[in-house]
Amino acid sequence: MDKGNVSSFSMVTSTAIFSSVIFVITLILVRVLYVIYCSSRPMSRRAQKPVSTLIILGSGGHTAEMINLLAVLQKDRFYPRFYIAAATDNMSLQKAELLENSLVAENGTPVNNPAKFMKIYRSREVGQSYITSIWTTLVAMAHALWLMIKIRPEVILCNGPGTCVPICAIAFVFKVFGIRWSSIFYVESIARVKRLSLSGLLLYKLRIADQLFVQWPRLQQQYPRAIYVGRLM
Amino acid sequence: MGDRGEEEEGRRRKRVVFVTVGTTRFDALVSAVDSENVRKVLAAKGYTHLLIQLGRGSYLPTKSDGDDGSLAVDYFTFSSSIADYLRSASLVISHAGSGSIFETLRLCKPLVVVVNEDLMDNHQSELAEELADRKHLYCARPQNLYQTLADMDLNTLLPYSPGDATPVAKHINRFLGFPDD
């Protein structure tokens, strides 16, 4: 009799564990769908306060495009600003610093909370093979998590470097678990005319980017959820 | 377009062809512009100087001071500001990176883009080909650079009107619930 009790007890507990796991997974799934649904829609409330903004810089051409966008964004709304660039890329942060310095010069008064510049390990160098990319992506992922815990931005602006995928994925997880709601804007590089880049494709297919801009009308026709409102360059 | 005003009497007008490979290496382009027939066609088209930015490439072109009426050839590896070289050029031959493409187009310089086919993820040709279809530049490969230069007619190129980031900024503002200005 004892034996039967034990087995029925373990059956009850395993059923309980099993159903609670199912319950939690369902809950997370529902939450993921809810986050995706909300992310695709404009904010319902009117924004009153400035939003902390994380800007992910690429290299060369990517940075030039981002600088053009930053030049017309209202600096009193997108504030404070955090810049991230690949550790191997010195030029991009320099260009961003130039832009920020020119703002200080324009306003005359130094800003009390100046822009911050950070470096991140790159998930993939140009020309690196896809296989070694797996390991470097993991390292980049851990570093990105550390930076994101520190910054927790409300807005993320990015335009193409591989660096932005781990960061945006972490931002999405933060949204799911209610740690921080960040609106993710991705602008596909002007160099992409016929197909999205790997970064763009991932953020589009996984619905991580709230809004994905393309710079050629032909691309917009292929990816109907993308937005085309003109070129940055 | 872009010719220097200070032309001295009795001297040949200085017309520079500036070649840039960007931050990496592109030996196929450098050896293509260094070839005899490309030099000849450039000289025949009235260019006097060929200045090549080599980047990390290992192919060294033959220098020439152009005394015998041929093209004067010079090179360097890197420069902190490519802009000055672009500004003083009458023709730019560039790798397909979007940075130098748009920098050159913004300065309204005639441009021949040469696509590097050795790159792993070769999306670079997309942009050059699209802009070539729109007649803003010529697009070539190292192996047909000579033919492209020989056939090109710079009068058919159309000026490129720069893009405007304001609509994107406006869209982002609206999405976040900021009022329009």
Automatic annotation (TrEMBL), chain A:
InterPro entries: Oligosacch_biosynth_Alg14 (IPR013969). The chain crosses the membrane at residues 16-37, 129-149, 169-187. It is a single-pass membrane protein. Belongs to the ALG14 family. Keywords: Endoplasmic reticulum, Membrane, Transmembrane, Transmembrane helix. Gene3D superfamilies: Glycogen Phosphorylase B. It is found in: Endoplasmic reticulum membrane. Its main location: endoplasmic reticulum. This is UDP-N-acetylglucosamine transferase subunit ALG14.
TrEMBL record, chain B:
Signal peptide: none annotated. Residues 16-170 form the Glycosyl transferase family 28 C-terminal domain. This is Glycosyl transferase family 28 C-terminal domain-containing protein.
